[in-house]
């Protein structure tokens, strides 16, 4: 890592936030001379947000639904989550780096799936197909307000956002609308040099981004998540003391919900 990269990561570390959740104030006793004021009206939600959700390597929709169920419940009044399943059957088990032993009759939705596999020369196989599938899905089911990704799904989300911004700059009329935000959990920049065109610190991604990573992540070095952050123009950064997972404790859930709420279209007249 050269000096410039070290400085970029140091800048990321300086931006790391801890979740701040507003605590309810205890109601004061009401007396004759102190009438309780009415709370201001909360702006009504005109339309719920649509968020595209991308699971991690060797997961599938069943697993990702379970791991995000509490967040989905917390968002039910303001956002709908759209889960897309990776099309690639994963070849290598990340736990022991051996080939997966998949029974012949295992349904596709129960297999370990992802967005690409790894070739012997370090190239990614299947990523381009995954990109086309997601672009098609966004055209058919969108427009989407946000993207939510974990691990390899987070990296896929970053590639997707970069591709959309690059094609928009080229004036491509066939691309889907660019979402307004992306949430990347344990994210990383692809190692395959084919995708260097998408990541340039001199021309950063404009989409608003939330980056969450674990300080004790032994599956994916936190430095890789910090490196990905340097390619975004105005990132919000949140670290936690755990490892390679999406923290879903109450405090973090409130933080995610508050982050998403800023993108809500509201009717101030109601």
Quick take:
The chain is an alpha/beta fold and 270 residues long. It has 7 helices and 15 strands.
Rg, alpha carbons: 20 Å
Structural class: alpha/beta
Helix run count: 7
Tell me the span between the first and last alpha carbons.
53 Å
SSE succession? HEEEHHEEEEEEEHEHEEHEHE
How does this structure look, described?
This protein is of the alpha/beta class and 270 residues long. The chain has one domain: Alpha/Beta hydrolase fold, catalytic domain (Rossmann fold). It has helices at 3-15, 61-67, 69-74, 127-141, 152-169, 222-229, 250-261; strands spanning 16-17, 44-45, 49-54, 79-84, 88-89, 92-93, 98-99, 113-114, 117-118, 124-125, 146-150, 181-185, 208-214, 235-240, 266-267. The strands form 5 sheets. A 7-stranded parallel sheet has the order 1-14-13-12-11-3-4, sandwiched between helices. Strands 2-15 form a two-stranded antiparallel sheet. Strands 5-8 form a two-stranded antiparallel ribbon. Helix 1 (3-15) crosses helix 6 (222-229). It is globular, with a radius of gyration of 20 Å. Residues 20-30 have low confidence and may be disordered.
């Amino acid at each position: 890592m050269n000096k410039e990269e070290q400085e970029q990561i140091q800048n990321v570390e300086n931006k790391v936030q801890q979740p701040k959740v507003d605590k309810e104030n205890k109601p004061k006793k009401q007396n004759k001379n102190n009438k309780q004021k009415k709370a201001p009206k909360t702006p009504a939600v005109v339309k719920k947000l649509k968020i595209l959700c991308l699971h991690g390597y060797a997961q599938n929709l069943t697993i990702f639904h379970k791991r995000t169920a509490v967040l989905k419940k917390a968002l039910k009044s303001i956002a709908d989550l759209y889960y897309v399943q990776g099309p690639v059957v994963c070849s290598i088990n990340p736990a022991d780096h051996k080939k997966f032993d998949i029974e012949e009759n295992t349904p596709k939705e129960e297999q370990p799936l992802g967005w690409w596999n790894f070739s012997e020369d370090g190239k990614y196989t299947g990523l381009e197909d995954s990109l086309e599938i997601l672009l098609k899905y966004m055209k058919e089911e969108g427009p989407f307000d946000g993207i939510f990704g974990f691990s390899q799904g987070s990296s896929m989300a970053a590639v997707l956002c970069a591709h959309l911004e690059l094609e928009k700059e080229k004036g491509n009329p066939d691309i889907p609308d660019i979402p307004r935000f992306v949430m990347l959990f344990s994210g990383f920049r692809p190692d395959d040099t084919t995708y260097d065109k998408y990541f340039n610190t001199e021309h950063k991604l404009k989409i608003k981004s939330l980056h969450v990573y674990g300080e004790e992540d032994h599956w994916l070095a936190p430095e890789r998540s910090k490196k990905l952050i340097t390619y975004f123009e105005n990132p919000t950064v949140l670290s936690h003391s755990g490892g390679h997972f999406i923290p879903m404790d109450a405090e973090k859930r409130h933080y995610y919900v508050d982050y998403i709420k800023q993108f809500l279209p509201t009717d101030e007249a109601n």
